[in-house]
Write a structure and sequence with these properties.
Number of strands of chain B: 0
Number of strands of chain A: 2
Radius of gyration of chain A: 19 Å
Oligomer: heterodimer
Number of helices of chain B: 3
Order of helices and strands of chain A: HHHEE
Mean pLDDT of chain A: 85
Strand order of the largest sheet of chain A: 1-2
Low-confidence stretches of chain B: none
Helix content of chain B: over 70%
Radius of gyration of chain B: 16 Å
Shape of chain B: elongated
Helix content of chain A: 55-70%
Largest sheet of chain A: 2 strands, antiparallel
Strand content of chain A: under 5%
Shape of chain A: elongated
Chain lengths: 123, 91
Amino acid sequence: MIDLITLFFLFSGSLLILIAGIGILRMPDVFMRASAVTKAGTVGVGLILTGFIIYYLDFELSARSLAIVLFIAITSPVGAHMIGRAAYIMGDKLWEATVRDDLKGKFDPEKHEIKSNENEDQS
Amino acid sequence: MIDLDFWISFLIMPILGISVILVFMRFLIGPSISDRVVSLDLLVTVGIGLIITYCILVKETVFIDFALILALLGFLSTVAFAYYIEKKGEK
């Protein structure tokens, strides 16, 4: 029974990681690629580690696995945001069918900052 | 019951291996450096998944520490690459 539940979690996680791999190859834009990688990769590794916890049911291993899951869940969006911001500043092209670009004209190359609002005072 | 080693060897590991191949193709053909950094991040994540699956396959639990270290190093490398790409685009 334990084997069956473990295999279910491992299969779900590896399928999500496969979806992340297809997404990073097929998406037309660096920002969409970062989005696909962050969501699918984080949940995939989380499911695989859940299968690991269920297979062993040991306190120390569960603590370490939960530490890995929490660390990935915290740091993966931060990394994706930083690399997206760097790509936008470097001038990577958006997809040509993109409907709107909210940051258009709000990036100041001299002062090197992105205004979040036109009316807001920059301190 | 089911044979877990058989299913891990012939179902889970090949799926993860195909994912590694797809991500590495994007790493090779990526048009800009940001694509390469994003694919490197996903490569580290798939590597963590592979290490955990290997832990279950060989019944050896020491490798979970390597997965923890790999997660730390992956985040550090992503942040460092993003920082220097941003500095490069500044001038």
